[in-house]
Amino acid sequence: LLLRSSLKKRNKQVADLDLHLPPSPAALPVLGHLHLLGRSLYQSLDKLSSKYGPLLYLRLGPSRRLLVVSSASMATEVFKTNDLAFSDRPSFAFEEELPYGSEGFFSAKYGEYWRFMKKVCMTQLLGAKQLEQSRSIRREEIASLLCRVLESGQKKEVIDLGAELMKLTNNATCRLAMSTRVSGETNEAEQIRDLVKESLKLATKVCFGDVLGPFKRLSFWLYGKQAIDVTMKYDGILERIWKEHEETGHKENEQDLMDILLKVYKNDKAEFQMTRNHVKALLLDIFVAGTGSSGEVMQWTMSELINNPHILKKLREEISSVVGTGRLVDESDIPNLPYLQAVVKETLRLYPPLAVTTRECREHCKIKGYDIPQNTMVAINLYSVMRDPEVWDNPNEFRPERFLVSSTVEGHDNETTIKGRNLVDFVPFGAGRRGCPGSALAYNTINSTIASLVQCFDWKAGASGDEAKVNMEVGVGLSLAKAHSLVCLPVVLFNPFRAP
Ligand code: HEM
Questions:
Q1: CA distance 21 to 19
Q2: Which atom of ligand 1 is closest in space to residue 285's alpha carbon?
Q3: 120-145: string of b/e by CB count within 10 Å (b at 16+)?
Q4: What is the DSSP-derived secondary structure letter of residue 125?
Q5: Ligand 1 center to 438 CA (angstroms)
Q6: Whole-prediction pTM
Q7: Pairing of strands 370-372, 365-367
Q8: Beta-bridge mates of residue 58
Q9: Do the beta carbons of residue 80 and residue 390 sit within 8 Å?
Q10: I need a labelling partner for 378 at 20 to 30 A (CA). Which of 269, 293, 328, 460 fits?
Q11: How confident is the model at residue 99 (pLDDT cuts 50, 70, 90)?
Q12: Furthest CA-CA distance within the chain
């Protein structure tokens, strides 16, 4: 095995000699550049790019090649100039052996299945009609969050707002996806959240085999069985809910995502025939993508607002000038609240939950004169792109006003014109054809929840509500999450449920 692997490596090195590859720091034998990566991927890549430049070529273990992209100018090359060439996702070790490992939408190769599902996502699952129809779910989940916060406020008790926000996004996503029960003894939303979290953790450990070269089976021996067991538990819940959907169904205007997918699945005339696993894998993608990320962004937003009372005050003034003092702010008010949108965008810029997105190059191409060989894995560090000093003034400061410079907030969607070039610089949802299809849903959930929390309460930091600042330490791991859940004291300003 060792002999075969080293021969393969030598052939690759010889082929690489003919190419003009991007800069690469000195590598160790076998490990390549693995030793340069710490527990927080986006931070390690950010550090490397400030030393070696915004386009880097790394070797992870004996065989994996990785192109690292870290500036707005380089991101524009990937997301815009060469969008089609970079529209694949990389394959990972053992995906064929994990349940629906190769059937997900997120990880799908750019091809017939991905194009079909993208259309279904944009026109049906996450389109304008479904967003409108699911508005009542978000309104109910926000109301039940406000009730719990009101109770803490009235008792002058601190609340774990971080945990509450995670619960809100999880409940809202599970109801939107499959009308699951979110309370009582069989709280399906909580069961699904725990299983999805565990299965993702184990799958990541199994995929680590990718950098172990000839020893890659080791990671599957260690974690493969556990990963399969956890995913099969999720599968069991889904099969039960699927059966309930087939037996009872929902009215046309109460359809959830599973109802829509079952119709697509059963349509013999559809352009692409989905399998049962395609449906379950897509719902898994939606749980993974839909819950944690919006919850994290809301925690960071509230933390920044507590730490910047002048911004909190300005936002509350905007809400009260638009909504008045007699009713709760609603999702339909958002277009009239530009400062709210700017606050949320500024949080997404500084704390993108998926700090690094991965792609794969489908064909040999060139970036700024450098060769990028076919099948190279690409890591675009969204964190670095959105702190690129070439396009963002004082990039590390929380300044929502920067999004108000253009006449509308929508004006700064994801590009800025600098020296006659349109640069893709605001990318919390990625960009191009593989960009996030859930951004409108995420904006609606985040904007309306933050507006309600700001309108109804004032906030004091810390476990006893007497600390000067919220601790902004970042946790380790793949996502950009807070190290400590946001615990704070709510002070009631307005009770929307009290009769006038
Ligand atoms: C704050 C919330 C969210 C953030 C920051 C976020 C961010 C991202 C990013 C960075 C990507 C990769 C894009 C790329 O490679 O260019 C992505 C992909 C994706 N996201 Fe989101 N997302 C969020 C919420 C959601 C929600 C609510 C859903 C669905 C309910 C969703 C579904 C997806 C899917 C299915 C993909 C894969 C798209 C593809 O490969 O074609 N996301 N998201």
A1: 6
A2: 35
A3: bbeebbbeeebbebbeebbeebbeeb
A4: I
A5: 6
A6: 0.92
A7: antiparallel
A8: 66
A9: no
A10: 293
A11: confident
A12: 80
Domain 2-492 class, CATH top level? mainly alpha
Residue 305 phi/psi, 5° resolution? -65, -40
Classify 291 as helix, strand or coil: coil
The residue-averaged pLDDT of 140-160 equals 96
CA dihedral 343, 43, 488, 330 (to 10 degrees): 30
Per-residue pLDDT of 385-414, as tens digits, reads 999 999 999 999 999 999 997 544 444 567
Q: Is 50 exceeded by the pLDDT of residue 457?
A: yes
Residues with CB under 6 A from ligand 1: 105-106, 126, 285-286, 289-290, 293-294, 297, 352-354, 357, 428-431, 434-438, 441-442
Contact 444, 138 (CB under 8 A): yes
For the record, the structure tokens of 442 come out as 């995420």
H/E stretch holding 248 reads: helix 217-248
Structure tokens that stand for 64 in this block: 């994996």
For residue 44, the SS3 value is: helix
477 compared with 338, residue with greater pLDDT: 338
The residue contributing the CA closest to ligand 1 atom 33 is 436
The CA distance from 337 to 106, in Å, is 32
Q: Give yes or no for a contact between 58 and 326, defined as CB atoms under 8 angstroms apart.
A: no
Residue 436 assigned as binding residue: yes
Phi-psi region of 27 (alpha: psi -120 to 50; beta: other; left: phi over 0): beta
Q: At what angle do helices 112-120 and 276-290 cross, to 10 degrees?
A: 60
Return the structure tokens found at 361: 């190059």
Q: Which amino acid is at 396?
A: N
Atom of ligand 1 nearest to the CA of 354: 10
4 vs 364, more confident: 364
SS3 (DSSP) at 155: coil
DSSP letters along 65-87, please?
EEEEE-SHHHHHIIIIITTTTT-
More confident residue, 276 or 206: 276
Beta-sheet strand order (sheet of 159-160) = 159-160, 487-492, 457-461
Task: Say if CB 156 and CB 489 are below 8 A apart.
Answer: yes
Task: Give the single-character DSSP code of 408.
Answer: S
Per-residue pLDDT at 307: 96
Instruction: Tally the C-alpha atoms within 13 A of residue 50's C-alpha that lie toward its C-beta.
Output: 10
Q: What is the mean pLDDT of residues 425-441?
A: 95
